[in-house]
Design goal:
Helix content: 25-40%
Order of helices and strands: HHEEEEHHEH
Distance between the termini: 20 Å
Number of strands: 5
CATH architecture: 2-Layer Sandwich
Strand content: 25-35%
Strand order of the largest sheet: 3-2-1-4-5
Shape: globular
Length: 108
């Protein structure tokens, strides 16, 4: 199941990178984020050189930490749920700077 989620995230990030608002949001932005799923798997995102990559596995000292469950992450990437809604419902927890939190909404 985790390979399937990784493929979904990679596919949806590629689609997102075609959007002007995503490109504007990450322009010159360099950050790392660790996604920790309640079910156990971890993934990490690297935003660098106006690109976003996602990989399976952990990351030392990420700029942001994201906690959620696989179902919520799927819904976020399929645009069936907004990040704001997930945060309000406490299905998504993000630790990072306020500026980073504002930018991350353009990624999810």
């Amino acid at each position: 199941m985790t390979d399937e989620l990784l493929e979904l995230m990679q596919e949806r990030i590629a689609i997102g990178l075609e959007r002007e608002k995503t490109i504007e949001a990450i322009d010159g932005w360099e950050r790392t984020a660790l996604l920790m799923l309640k079910e156990g798997p971890e993934y990490h995102f690297i935003v660098k050189d106006n690109n976003i990559t996602v990989h399976q596995g952990t990351l030392d000292e990420p700029d942001m930490k994201i906690q959620s469950d696989e179902d919520t992450i799927r819904k976020l990437f399929l645009e069936e749920m907004s990040a704001a809604s997930a945060l309000l419902k406490r299905k998504l927890k993000v630790k990072g700077s306020a500026g980073d939190l504002m930018k991350i909404r353009h990624i999810f």
